[in-house]
Amino acid sequence: MEKSLIMSAEDLERTYLRFAHQILEPYDNPAFPAVIGMQTRGVYMGRRILKNIKKEHTDVPDFGVLDVTFYRDDFRSKLKMPQVKVTEIPFDLYDRDVILIDDVLYTGRTVRSAMDALMAYGRPRSIRFCCMIDRGHRELPIAADYIGMTVPTHHKEEVRVKVKELDGEDAVYLINIEETETNG
Predict the structure, then answer these.
(1) How many Å apart are CA 130 and CA 33, to the nearest integer?
(2) Could you tell me the pTM of the whole model?
(3) Could you name the CATH architecture of 9-24+31-74+83-152?
């Protein structure tokens, strides 16, 4: 399997710190925006961003976890049973600025699903989107407000964001899928 390291653990840490500053920049009160991590890696990314905010502020944004499985437009077309994860938003979304966090922006369909899910929980004043990697190939008019890195890819490539809590390492790799499929 051919894979290329495109972000190291140090690169990711710098990016989490930058995200923390960018997210808080428009607010006088650092607790006003709400941060919601999308299952699975977006949850860990969101927690890292909040950890950086806590280094400088005693008041921090509320944090929630969102699973979009039942809001996906391909939910009923998949043959296998979907793996549903926890959604936990323990605060009111009404009139809040929500910062939605995910690892990779690709077609935009998952972000659209997340917006549908958030609207089912309340009516935020705004929704901003933060992703570590924007790999292009949009199918919907969705754009990220905060981007760690833009990585133009081919359809036969995949971007994998690794987090230590799940994968044992912090890194981002570009992987050639075609080679992976032919080599097993």
Answers:
(1) 13
(2) 0.91
(3) 3-Layer(aba) Sandwich (3.40)
